[in-house]
């Protein structure tokens, strides 16, 4: 994936390199709030099945709840994330980075509640606990660099499991935090939290 343009070329918080699929599930960030955190998630619908359109349908409130038995467990959910990285590395954007996506739910980080207020949510197509594709790490690290250029207060990258411990387990043990840390360190960003920082919410 090629380098992504910085904020001057991100009209209204939309990344030109991403396929844009607008979600209605967002709202304004609290006045004066700066984005300091990126939260990594994993998602597949139905669980363990890849490549379909169910994730996009979920985030745009168009999922047919009767199409699969699992969907009944999430019936009525109104959720979103800023970005989705598919298994083949495709980048999809659902919500402007200037807005508050509905991705973290009840959450806190380092004693600060309501993670959605001050974070970017990035979904990786995958199953919690399972491995992710090399091209997804490539896209993720490039995206994080671009988001940092766009939102310079971004300081840490954590998992959903770290901001909602006991309630969420994604992206799970299959996600290679050390690899992401190395990729970000090579870029000079230094935004990956220290090992003791992960899970210290």
Automatic annotation (TrEMBL):
Residues 23-172 form the N-acetylmuramoyl-L-alanine amidase domain. Gene3D superfamilies: Peptidoglycan recognition protein-like (3.40.80.10). Keywords: Cell wall biogenesis/degradation, Cytoplasm, Hydrolase, Metal-binding, Zinc. The keyword Calcium does not apply. One of its GO terms (cellular component) is cytoplasm. Pfam families: Amidase_2. One of its GO terms (biological process) is peptidoglycan turnover. Its main location: cytoplasm. It catalyses: Hydrolyzes the link between N-acetylmuramoyl residues and L-amino acid residues in certain cell-wall glycopeptides. SUPFAM superfamilies: N-acetylmuramoyl-L-alanine amidase-like. Its EC number is 3.5.1.28. It is found in: Cytoplasm. SMART domains: Ami_2. GO terms for molecular function: metal ion binding; N-acetylmuramoyl-L-alanine amidase activity. It is an enzyme of class 3 (hydrolase). It comes from the Bacteria. Belongs to the N-acetylmuramoyl-L-alanine amidase 2 family. This is 1,6-anhydro-N-acetylmuramyl-L-alanine amidase AmpD. It comes from Rivibacter subsaxonicus.
């Amino acid at each position: 994936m090629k380098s992504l343009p910085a904020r001057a070329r991100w009209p209204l918080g939309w990344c030109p390199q991403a396929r844009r699929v607008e979600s209605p599930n967002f709202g304004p960030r609290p006045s004066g709030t700066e984005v300091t955190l990126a939260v990594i998630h994993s998602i597949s619908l139905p669980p363990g099945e890849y490549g379909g359109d169910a994730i996009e349908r979920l985030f745009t409130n168009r999922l047919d709840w009767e199409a699969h038995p699992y969907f009944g467990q999430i019936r009525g959910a109104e959720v979103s994330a800023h970005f989705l990285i598919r298994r083949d590395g495709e980048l999809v954007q659902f919500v402007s980075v200037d807005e508050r996506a509905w991705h973290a739910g009840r959450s806190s980080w380092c004693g600060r509640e309501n993670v959605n207020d001050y974070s970017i949510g990035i979904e990786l197509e995958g199953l919690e606990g399972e491995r992710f594709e090399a091209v997804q790490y490539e896209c993720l690290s490039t995206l994080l660099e671009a988001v940092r250029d766009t939102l310079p207060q971004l300081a840490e990258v954590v998992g959903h499991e770290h901001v909602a411990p006991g309630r969420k387990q994604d992206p799970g043990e299959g996600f290679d935090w050390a690899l992401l840390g190395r990729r970000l360190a090579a870029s000079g960003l230094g935004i990956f939290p220290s090992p003791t920082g992960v899970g210290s919410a």
